[in-house]
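Entry:
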Amino acid sequence: MTWWLPWHPDWYINLAVLLIALTLDILLPEPPNAVHPVVLMGKIISVLERFAVGMGNTVAFLLGVVIAVAVPALFAAAAWLAVIALFALGDILFLIGTAVLMKTTFTVRGLANAARETQRSIEDADIHLARRSLQGLVSRDAADLSKPLVAAAAIESVAENTTDSFIAPWLAFALLGLPGAFAYRAVNTLDSMIGYRGKYEYLGKASARLDDLLNLIPARISAGLLLMAGALSGFSTREGWRTALRQHRRTSSPNAGWTIAAMAGLLSVSLEKPGHYIIGENYREPKASHIGKAVRLAYIVSALGIVISMGVTISFGLS
């Protein structure tokens, strides 16, 4: 192994890492917070953001640029060192260790479970529990959301997170190995914590724009895979494509609108974030059952996405 390579020199080992990591995600719960790398990312970001208290906009922006570069670089470097150490221990330990670490950078089952918890709460007519469970999916204030708006938020989160939760980190791994997946997860965590308007608008600008850049291609791939999943499931791909093409710009994110609009068209439901956007306003209000349909589509997207990521992994391994 050349010392600077972020992956194993044998492509089939890297392929096995991806498949084992996916299997671990499906079969096992998330690691405890005490040892979860993403939780550590969050703690480091929380410490760094305190330095912005009382800063002017310009200084906060410059600090945000440093944080947007330093945090992903730190975790990419740590992953790179882990890859080197694991390689020195032999192929079996490399395979297991790298797969375990890779599993922490994405989730398919976790996204599905969180969405289905909200679905069950709505079906049980417990709107208060549904609003609380929604906090595991979105950061918006759910205190006054009606059942259709809670369902819409859950569906939007499932759609958007086909990109953030698994397609993008898989592609990052296929292109740049474990360090790439860790760097992507760090950027995405930064965006979710400080990359929004309001208190952290200037501190989080660099992180938000970097996240937009990294998701530019994965989000469009995810939207395409959603349309393919819809076709395989008997939904109207024509409506999905038409809605995605015409209404993807309604979200503030240049990327999230593609998957959200595609999902709205496929399910023929109106997806609204109060005070921000309505996508598919001519469609019917979403119900709890539509959350389940969105989850099934997301699972198909994951199946299609892992095949694409495997293909990219093989291509780079043979080049």
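The CA atoms of residues 71 and 186 lie 7 Å apart.
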